Amino acid sequence: MSETSPRLRAVLEDIPTYKPGKPAGTGGPAGYKLSSNENPYPPLPGVLESVTAAACSFNRYPDMACTGLMDELSERFGVPRDHLATGTGSVGVAQQLLQATSGPGDEVIYAWRSFEAYPIITRISGATPVQVPLTPGDVHDLDAMADAITDRTRLIFVCNPNNPTGTVVHREELERFLDRVPDDVLVVLDEAYREFIRDVRVPDGVELYRRRPNVCVLRTFSKAYGLAGLRVGFAIAHEPVAVALRKTAVPFGVSQLAQEAAIASLRAEDELLGRVGSLVGERSRVMDALRAQGWTVPETQANFVWLRLGERTMDFAAVCEQAGVVVRPFPGEGVRVTIGEAEGNDIFMKVAEGYPKEG
Ligand code: PMP
């Protein structure tokens, strides 16, 4: 056998493999997983039934056009069907957007720190990532992002609320930013946590899309709708982009189980959004407690909170794990803690209370 292995693209050498949040209960007492921004509620019985029914025919390929789901989404958002595209989670759709817009020599702008997949999928496309630091308050620096635009810019991600800080950008600043973006640059408003927003100053990306042909909105069923394990996300975009998303889709990427669960979830939206309301209540409880304890925590509009811990990050994460909750450390920066069941949140708050506030 030859010693030579197949030649791989050089760009892959520097690309890290996406790291998922650590599961709960892997050694040690940690029983609550607060590391992946998941919805802690189990599936609704009606949603489970629709998945079970779909499972009876998984010997067949799924409906590649996601017809039923497209109809539901079209009605729910008041957008034409051909302005919609589904994919294997919103991260799958984000990767398709890169394939559709960017390649070697092109530039992709996003804030940093933000969603970990952005640098990975950008570099896989061959394009150059342009990372614009968050402000000292952990918010997108939209002026600096606009200043970073060049002739080579093809796509810009705005993560609103931002993962992992939970911070948001408001209507006026986003509109001002969009006014500065050339028409031939695609702006992707990643709204994975949209349903958790209570700040009325945050615009709904779908309203911006209606007025701006270069805006694309990314949404997911993984968070508020609790379908993370089924992998279904979607984009709302004007026709040329939506058509490109259909071309770049992995054939049959969204399973019939996922499609049926998404349809059933949209039909059970009131109940699911009621759960989101309870999680938002828990978020307030956690934020109030952390602030009363003396922590400086950026205002969050998502289902997680961000503690800037610098060099103490890994230590804090280890103390949490010992106490029974798994959180998400970003070494040298901070920890992101998902708002989960009240019991898990209580454990986290207790650890935070006993932990020194200054390094
Ligand atoms: N965007 C953001 C900002 C996220 O935090 C996540 C999940 N962590 C995603 C997109 C992708 O979610 P999914 O692929 O499950 O839809």
From TrEMBL:
The UniProt record lists the keyword Lipoprotein: no
| Membrane-spanning segments | none
Give the domain of life.
Answer: Bacteria
Entry EC no(s): 2.6.1.57
Q: Which reaction does it catalyse?
A: an aromatic L-alpha-amino acid + 2-oxoglutarate = an aromatic oxo-acid + L-glutamate
- Keywords carried by this UniProt record: Aminotransferase, Pyridoxal phosphate, Transferase
State the needed cofactors, names only: pyridoxal 5'-phosphate
Q: Does the keyword Transferase apply?
A: yes
Modification N6-(pyridoxal phosphate)lysine, positions = 223
Task: Give the signal peptide range.
Answer: none
Return the broad EC class. transferase
> Residue limits of the Aminotransferase class I/classII large domain?
33-347
The record's comment on protein family reads:
Belongs to the class-II pyridoxal-phosphate-dependent aminotransferase family.
Kindly state the subunit structure of this protein. Answer: Homodimer.
Report the protein's function: Aminotransferase that catalyzes the conversion of aromatic amino acids and 2-oxoglutarate into corresponding aromatic oxo acids and L-glutamate.
Q: Which PANTHER family match?
A: HISTIDINOL-PHOSPHATE AMINOTRANSFERASE, HISTIDINOL-PHOSPHATE AMINOTRANSFERASE 2
Q: What is this protein called?
A: Aromatic amino acid aminotransferase
- Quick one: which gene encodes this? hisC_1
